[in-house]
Amino acid sequence: MAPVIFENARLFDGVNAQCRDGMSVSVIDKRIGDVSPDRIGGSDARRVDVGGRTLMPGLIDLHIHAYASSVNDLHVEQAGVPYNTAHAARMLGHALDCGFTTVRDIGGGDRSLATAIADGLIRAPRFFYAGRIISMTGGHGDLRPVHVRRHDPGLCQCGEAGVLSVIADGVDECVKATREELRQGAHCIKIMGSGGVTSPADPIWMNQYREDEIRAIVGECRERRTYVSSHCHGAEAIRRSVDFGVRVIEHGTLIDPETAAHVARSGAFVVPTMATIYALMEEGAALGLPPVSQEKVKVVYAAALAGLEHMREAGVKIGFGTDLLGDTYVRQCQEFAIRRHVFEPIEILRQATSISAEILNREGELGCIAPGAAADLVVVDGDPLADISLLAAQGRNLSLIMRDGAIIKDRL
User: Fold this and answer.
1) pLDDT in tens for each of the 412 residues of the chain?
2) Which among 245, 184, 183, 238 has a CA at the least distance from the CA of 213?
3) CB 108 within 8 A of CB 365
4) DSSP class of residue 379?
5) How many CA atoms lie within 13 A of 16 on its CB side?
6) What residues does 7 pair with on adjacent strands?
7) Under 8 Å CB-to-CB from 321, ≥6 apart: which residues?
8) Could you write out the DSSP letters of every residue in 42-60?
9) Cβ atoms of residues 260 and 286 within 8 Å
10) Phi/psi of residue 356, nearest 5 degrees
11) CB proximity list for 86: less than 8 A, separation 6 or greater
12) Architecture of domain 4-58+368-410
């Protein structure tokens, strides 16, 4: 792969609020070489004149479900592997075209999909996956309607696994399920720590898993030098997950000021997912979201922006996620537009780059522009630090996208 040198760039490095004009950045062997205010030498390099546009790190979405081909979880279970995989390819290609050069599949993604991406069979961002989510019986990962008494493989292969989750009860089952997902290459483990929107039998406010079960899962992940994420809406579920060793809270929608301060003191992260809440409120019924789930969406929607404000005021470290299901995947960029109601553009940009890289344990490698970092870059037509809506336009304002040193899109 020939070296590439970007010139005349307005540089946002993923961290600093002050961009530097007239910068040059070299890319050699899939890595960033020099970052300099001076011209970088290299007779064999391709030179790209950025024309004063903003050069910034590729975006990171920490909460996707590539196989979630419908807003109705039962439909996902019944769709079959080819259908769900086709949806994954479509969704991941769209994410890449929007400037997301890294995603974390936090429930369902597996080694097979990761290998297909690595082998170039699917156009996709850099792909991290948590394997199947670990849920208790009657938890957010148990998809059986309330009238179903037995585990029916046609509804959910509980006791083994469904598309997105596996059921485990008690310390021994939780340990075994965790070890199995880690054995298959999961980069982290996700558990269901509270009730959820799309599951039929658990109220949003319900806390899930006992302390000994959560601590057992956390212990297994620490031995593997990785971490646990916990799906949590309610404040109590958030607090107890953090107290039991969970590193990352997914959603955090119903957090209160006291819990936000507690999370900040603990050093844990939260990955809010606003885009999916708005999408399910506006389109859920038309797309087949069950009535019980429609009512749950109203609960989290009413508190979502206030939750973001509590996190911001407390100084919680916040990552970037979307959690879009089925046909709502096209709303991925809307997350930027929603967050601007609470955050300044620089805060959102850090959330979608350097902070999300820290959550992935890839600080200094992803989400930044620095010597030695991975060459995941985008060129924005304009200044996203002044106008974050430039990133909310489905990639239309991106002149160039580079993933792992390869140019994916080039209008320059």
Assistant:
1) 789 999 999 999 999 999 999 999 999 999 999 999 999 987 788 999 999 999 999 999 999 999 999 999 889 999 999 999 999 999 999 999 999 999 999 999 999 999 999 999 999 999 999 999 999 999 998 887 777 766 554 444 444 568 999 999 999 999 999 999 999 999 999 999 999 898 878 889 999 999 999 999 999 999 999 999 999 999 999 999 999 999 999 999 999 999 999 999 999 999 999 999 999 999 989 988 888 888 989 989 999 999 999 999 999 999 999 999 999 999 999 999 999 999 999 999 999 999 999 999 999 999 999 999 999 999 999 999 999 999 999 999 999 999 999 999 999 9
2) 245
3) no
4) E
5) 9
6) 49
7) 61, 62, 63, 64, 104, 106, 250, 271, 272, 273, 335
8) -TTSEEEE-TTPEEEEPEE
9) no
10) -65, -35
11) 69
12) Roll (2.30)
Q: Where in the sequence of the chain do the CATH 2.30.40.10 domains occur? A: 4-58+368-410
Return the SS3 of 381: coil
Q: Provide the token pair at 300.
A: 């989290």
Q: How far is Cα 307 from Cα 168, in angstroms, rounded to an integer? A: 30
DSSP string, 266-284: HT-EEE--HHHHHHHHHHT
Q: What is the pTM of this model?
A: 0.95
Q: Where are the beta strands (DSSP E) in 240-366?
A: 248-254, 269-271, 317-318
The residue whose two tokens read 């999916």 is 276
- What token pair was written down for 96? 């890449």
Retrieve residue 394's tokens.
């489905």
Whose structure tokens read 């350097």?
354
Q: Which helix (H) or strand (E) holds 327?
A: none
- The residue type of 108 is G
- Listed as own residue / partner, the contacts of 282-291 with beta carbons closer than 8 Å and 24 or more positions apart are 283/71, 283/327, 283/328, 284/71, 287/70, 287/71, 287/72, 287/326, 287/327, 287/328, 288/70, 288/71, 288/72, 288/75, 289/71, 289/72, 289/198, 290/72, 290/198, 290/200
CATH number of the domain located at residue range(s) 59-332 in this protein: 3.20.20.140
Portions of the chain given CATH number 3.20.20.140 = 59-332
